[in-house]
Task: structure prediction
Amino acid sequence: MLETAELISEFICLLYYKNKQTINYKGHCHRIVEELKHRADEHYDCALTLKKMSELYFMNEKYLGRLFLKQTGQTFHSYINMRRLKAAAELLENTDRSVIDISLECGFNSISYFNRIFLKKYGKTPAQYRKYTAKSR
Result:
């Protein structure tokens, strides 16, 4: 058992030094943060949570959240919401789908939450935004 413990300890040290080298402090994001951003950009319509991502990458959820915040300046939840809102705004501008359908398609489970954060970001409700962008065309 002592030999096994020593092997595990050496393996952990190797992982630590390998991952330590992947962080570039010249303004570039850590590889995991880049992967999280990419996953959020591609799968914003799914139920992505930091907890699920931490399990996927075998990392501590709180550490991953702090790393994402430090590297991007925003929380993972905020990043996903901004991506969802961007997609919703594009759909509101270019389709005639209902606001409810768009909110669900973009990954929002609550229409009231969608309306509230859309208003906060764009200064208009989704319906007002659609009317405003239709007039601009």
